TrEMBL record:
InterPro entries: ASHA1/2-like_C (IPR013538), START-like_dom_sf (IPR023393)
Protein's recorded name: Activator of Hsp90 ATPase homologue 1/2-like C-terminal domain-containing protein
Residues covered by the Activator of Hsp90 ATPase homologue 1/2-like C-terminal domain: 12-134, 157-245
Domain of life: Bacteria
Amino acid sequence: MSTGVVRVRARASVERVWEALTNADELRVWLAELAEVDVRQGVFEFWGRFTPEGERGRQKLLEVGERSVKFSWFLHGKDYTVELSVGTRDGETVVAASQSPYPAWGEGIEDETHAGVVQTFWPLVLGNLVEHVEGRPVFGLCDFSTPEQRFEVDIAAPAAAVIDALTDVEKFQRWFGARASIEPFVGGRWAMGSFEEEPNPGKVVALDESRFAIEFPDGMVSSWELAESGGRTHLTFVQSGFDLGTPPYGSWMGWLSGFVDMRRMLEIADWKPMWHSMEMPGLPEGALVLE
């Protein structure tokens, strides 16, 4: 059976992260709108509008280890097995989410409402977990109750630094954790991976000190509006041009999970990417940029 694993590093103790993984009040901050947890009684549930197919009763606790919880999750008509764990690697606290079965590389782009959600849900919520256990405000969650894809956040950095983080390919790859190709001018190309590997790249349709936008071949547009005040930037991110009947939640959460670390890069003086490692069926060599 295929398995995918996402690992993030956190500047917090293993004990602190374990508490956040197993306390319902804390899960309601970084994971879900609603949660109930009692690992001694065999309960680990989360549901609500920030959870795909967010009805209650879809999780069943299977096993509790010293610093791990394993549960089944009935999602998209199939049973998944998920394990959340925390430990140390090379002196760092590392949090991992593994899920089986797991879609192969590329399937998330072809099927954003199912495979894409599986591949991007855990990176986003683990990013929020890192912020939470480090005492920072969580970035945000995906609202599955609406097709609207609009997100606003304040960043403690000037607008020019935010635009630079979005358009400088070296900086982008560090906070996003994946290879990209960017021509930072109106009319320029934009692609994940290389232009040689992507015959139909996106196109930069706006770029100045307060706006950046990319239009993709399928008509979807990703846009960033920036308003600076007192050295801080209010960022509004919008995805539009898609079928409202099948919102692209996969790419939406992919962007949001990356933005968690972009904000960290711009606000933390001794920042190091939170992305530790990732395993995925069919993952091409060199597709990720990890430190």
